Each structure stands twice: as structure tokens, then as C-alpha cells.
Amino acid sequence: MSESQVLRKDQLETSLFNERKLIGAGELKEDNPLDLSEPFRELCEACRRGDLKACQEKITEGVNINGRDLFDCTPLILASLCGHYEVVQLLLDSGALCERDTFQGERCLYNALNSKIRNLLLEYDYSKSTDPLQPFASHITSLLSRDHPQMSDIAVTAGDETFHLHKFILSARSPYFHKKLSAAPEATSWKLPSTIPPPAFSAGIRYLYLGDAPRDLRSGPGAGLYSEAEVFEGIDRIANHLELRGLVDTILDSGDKRLTRQRRSDEVSKGRNQMEAWFRENIIKHKVVIDMDRANEVKWSRDNSIFADVLLRADEDDSENEDAQEIKKSENGSLEESGSGIPIGGFSRLSLDTPMKKSKRKSVLFPAHRAMLLRSEFFSLMFSSSFREAQVTDYLQIIPIDCSPDVLEIVLTFLYTEKADFPLEIAVDVLFAADLLLIERLKTKAAVLISTLGSGNITSLSSKPSADTKQSTSTKGGKEAEGGDDIIDIYEILRAGWLMRIQRLEEFAARYFAYRLEAHIDNPEFAQLVKESAERIQKRQETDSIELVDDIRYYLSERFRLRFEDSGIDILNSESNPNEGDLAENTNTPSNSSPETNSNGNIISPTPLSPPPSSFNRKPSDANSAREQQGDKVVNSGPPKIQANGKSEQTNASSIIRTLDGREAGDEFSRDAIDYELLLNKLDQLLEKLGLDA
Q: Which terminus of the chain has a smaller tally of CB atoms within 10 A, N or C?
């Protein structure tokens, strides 16, 4: 670096003083502003705990992930410091800032708890995306120079230059064009006063299309005929004429890089909000719900008030139709049953004799603009080809999309606004629709949502318990998980990850299974899943491993033993009590057998190679009878005894720590070691049963 590029200490202090002054005056935004709001505090707390679901919910609510708390800690710093790898990955994917050569960036890197998180920060180059709206703005700007396919529907003339523009963008971004086009939606040409220089109008149009401010005012069409002062005066007139309040400020701020970047970010965010408001008021508001057999009969004129040039059709599912029919039936006063089983409601002869007709399936038609649909590679190829859908007709073409109306509305919302807020219940449907339409960013957002909100409580039961786990099972944290279907189908998610080659979903499913393996290991569908994973390898050899099983084993190690190995507790236990086993070993191990040890040297109870079926959910009494059959002694048998303090021994039964097969363990460390070996043995037995070697 040359000497002229190095600032002196007084210059640095002056620069910092001026920056603080601009921040205090509100002209410049701080990268990591102080945030004392309750939602931000909840986000920071979720990052400390590693609660993926809560983090995703707060990000969806719009909480600033780049804020800082009272201790100058950002959510990314807290997640990195506490060692929550998945939370760090989620924050980076969501646009958390961790820039090079900044105090907060270096602090985040050096505070990383382990090398895995540090390597993740380096892999993401500290920050994956500082402007998540950049792809949206880039597409809008690219419409000005796109020649094929041609999507413009109005030609605006300024002097000798003609600009091919799009009515819906002009109407959404400029109040002037909104009024003019609302009065004359069929207009295909517009002529501006000859006194306005074309370079000035070009700068205004680039501003409307979310482009960068011109660095040289005398650039562009016809620039050589006007001086810089005349062009700037024309820009001022264009800003007043088209009601573009931020245009002049954008030109003036082009000399300061930081102000330019901040102004650019604010203008893009403002433009996105304007597009969203226009989308809600015109596209969503004018969607048509019609019987499915009459959907193709709709005739929508090309000269319409919302400037749509194509119709997208989505049909309701049969299940949705049946649910709506049931709701309609109960609301119409037909027979219902009270709590005592006596029919109540209307008893008219007509309602009793007339059979309930099944309502017809509905279709929903969404008006849309091809210029925005080009963000999808599917539509881009369709409109660039010689397909029928690419031809211009008197009435709008109807293009059927293989998804539900709710999913299609989410897809259109993303294409028009870059927003993708949808519930977990339809996340898989959105994933398949994004894959069908080749929208990679939406597919990534759906995968992130599934892998974060789908995790839920990591110790809860899965959505598909086996036949032997119908009863509520005690989880690792000591809480009891209630039975019931979860929102997600983990089997469908894993198959979707395989089909679409989404590594994030494959890892999520393996981790999901590992933390709930006792509820899935005896499920025939889980065995079928393992078999499908093995069959994914063509020309499989005996030495080939099974990817799903390997991943589950890895996350099992993380679930039971990784935290103990990192903390060194297992070494301390082995050094302080080298000959002490757990309580289960003292009561269950025969005197002529030698204790077994795991890979860390801990003494663990001997586990049977073939645990009896359904042993994971056996009641304590059943476990005791099984141990009596094996020759083991049961410590607590017979009526409860009264202790000196007057309490029954049965009051302490809840404090007894038991393993998955019902045996007693001395502490949680011993229980985890035994459960880990049990689940590994069950996996080996499953592979043996399937005839697979892994």
C-alpha cells in the first residue's frame, strides 16, 4: 500500500468523528445498531440456546439479525460463541453481517467455540450476502436491456430516443404513471416534452427500474448534445414531473461510497415494498375462482386495467374439496350430533330426503406478467421458444401449473416481492413447486424453513411412531412427549431431498432420525428407507457403506457422547472412579462376567446383542420380570416400605434413571452410554435383517 493511501491517526479520528456525527444526525445508518426491543432479545436468547425453530420464527417476523444487545453482541456472535453450528448457518443464509477487517467480524471469528464453526465462517467468506434483495433488483433492471423474449408493452419517447418499458412497473413505482395509466390502460405509446434531455429521462427510468445511479451525467443516449448542468436540471424536472422524491438525492450521494450503498439499499427496499403493495392490490385482488370444468372458457382481454398478459391456473385438490364440503355441510344446519349422541339441527323434510351433492372442484386463475415470470427458468424457456404459450393472442393464454392455489400464490408472491413467508404445513409442496418451475432461491428458502422449523424440540417424538411406541415415551430431557401426528412427514422429506439432491434436507432427516431413533427403528417404513438408501448406489459392492446409516451413526454420536468428549467429563470419571460401574451393572451383571468398556474407556453395562422386541417402551414391571427370567435380581419388589421421614419408597420411583430397555442406571452419563450402544446394536440388527453390509 502506498504512503498516500495510508491515513494518519488524526485523519482516522476525524473520519470516525464525522461518521458518528452522521449517524447521530440520522443521515447514516449504523451497521450494527443497538436494539433493546423484546423480539430482538428473544432472538438473542434463542441463539444462546441453539433453538433453530425460534430463530427462524423471529427472522420471519422481520427482527433485525444485525442488531446488537447491551453487551455489543450480535446474534451471530452469540451463536458462534455458544457453539450452535446450525444456528450460525441459518444466520449466514439469512444475511447476517460478519465483514472482514471490522471489529464485529473479527470478534465473531475469534469467539467461535470450535473449528467447525470457524471453518464455516471462513467458507462463507464471513458473510454470504449483504444485500438479499440484489437478485430481485437485478432482474428488474435487466428488463430494460432484454431483447428476447420481448415483454415491453409501452414505448415512451423522449426527444429522438424511444424507451421500451413495462406498464405495471411504471404504475407501481411512479404515482404520475399510475394516474395516467389508470385513465388510459390501453395506451401503447407515450411522448414526453421535447425540453427534457434523454439522458435525464434515462436516469429517471433506471431509478424506477432499481438500477444504479449514473456516475457520469453526460453518458447515455444523446448525451453529447447537452451539458452536465442541463442534464442535472432535466433530472430535477423529471423527479418533480414523475414524483420521484429520491432521485436527486441518489445522484448527489454518488460521491460517498458508504452513503451510496446505504441509499441504494433503502431505495431497493422501498421499491420492493411498492411492488408488493401493487401486487396485493392488483394480482391477488383480481384472482378468479371458478369451477374446474369451466376454467378454460375464461376470456380475459389483453387490454386490462392491471396490464396482465398471461393467466396461471391452479386446481384444488380432492382432499381440499372434501374438507370444504364437510365444513359447508355443518354450517348449513344439517344433522349434527350433540355430546349425548342425539341428532340436533334442522329437521326439514328437504334436508332429510335430499342427498348432499358433492361440490365441484374449483380452479383459481391468477393474472400475471411474463416479465416477472421470467425469474423462473421454466417460464423463461417457455416464453423464449415456439410453444403455444409464447404466442400472442387476442385473449390471455391460460397456463396450468401442477400445484395447489395456495402454493401458486406463494410462488407468485416470491417472484413479485422476493418474500417467501409460508407455514411449515405446505413447505414440502412449495419445495416441489419451486423445483418444478426451476426457482432455485425459493427452493433453498423452503429447504431452510423445513430444516429449521421442522426440527422443533429435538427430543420430541417423530411423526411416524412404530407400533410399539403408541404410548407416550419419556424423552432424553425427562419430559414426556404427547402422542400425535407432527406437521411434517420425515420420510417424504428425505425422499424429496434425494430426488432434488438437496444436501441440507438429507442431513436434516438423518439428524431427525438420530434424535428420535428409538421411535423409528422398529418401523417397517424406516427399514424400507434404509433399503432405498442402499439401492441409490449403482453396482453396489460389499464394501460400500449406506449413506443414511452412516449419517445416523454420526448424529447418534453427537446426541449421546460428543458433548462429554469435548468437555473431558468421561476422562475425569474414568480417572476418579476406575473400578466403579453404574447401578445397572451392579444389579444386572453376573459375577463371572467381565465389565465392558466403550471407546473412551468408560465402564458400561453389558448390552444384549439382540434386545427383545418392544423393549424400548416396556413398563418398569415388565422390565423387572424380564430381568428375573435372565437370573437378575430385582432390587425393589414387594409393598412399599415407609422410610424414617414418613415417605414411601415409591415416591422416589420417578427419580430413578432408566435406559431405553427399562433397566436402572446410576446417572445420566451411564444411561446415555447404554442407550447409545443399544441403538447401535438395533441398527446392526436391522442391516442384518435386510441382508445389507455397512
A: N
Structure confidence by residue, pLDDT tens digits, 362-397? 999 999 999 999 999 999 999 998 888 888 888 999
| Same domain, yes or no: 324 and 433 | yes
Alpha-helix runs per DSSP H in 309-376: 318-331, 349-353, 370-373
- Do 304 and 417 sit in the same domain of this protein? yes
Q: 521-573 pLDDT, tens per residue? A: 999 999 999 999 988 887 777 667 889 999 999 988 888 865 454 445 445 45
User: Is residue 10 a part of any domain in this protein?
Assistant: no
Mean pLDDT estimate for the chain: 75
Residue 12 resides in a domain: no
671 within some domain: yes
State the cell numbers at 648: 414411601
170 and 181 Cβ atoms separated by less than 8 Å: yes
Q: Are residues 419 and 491 in the same domain?
A: no
Segments forming the whole domain that contains residue 88: 22-130
**149: exposed, middle or buried (C-beta count within 10 Å: 0-12, 13-18, 19+)?**
middle
Task: Name the nearest CA neighbour of 455 among 63, 39, 87.
Answer: 87
Residue 424 contacts residue 487 (beta carbons within 8 Å): yes
Rounded to a whole number of angstroms, the distance between the first and last alpha carbons of the chain is 56
Final residue belonging to a domain, choices 507, 531, 560: 560
Round to whole Å and give the CA distance between 219 and 231: 10
Asked if 232 contacts 209 with a C-beta cutoff of 8 angstroms, the reply is: no
β-partners of residue 169 are none
Same domain, 29 and 74: yes
The more confidently predicted of residues 482 and 570 is: 570
Matching residue, cell 392455489: 405
pLDDT band at 101 (very low <50, low <70, confident <90, very high): low
Residue 144 sits in the same domain as residue 215: yes
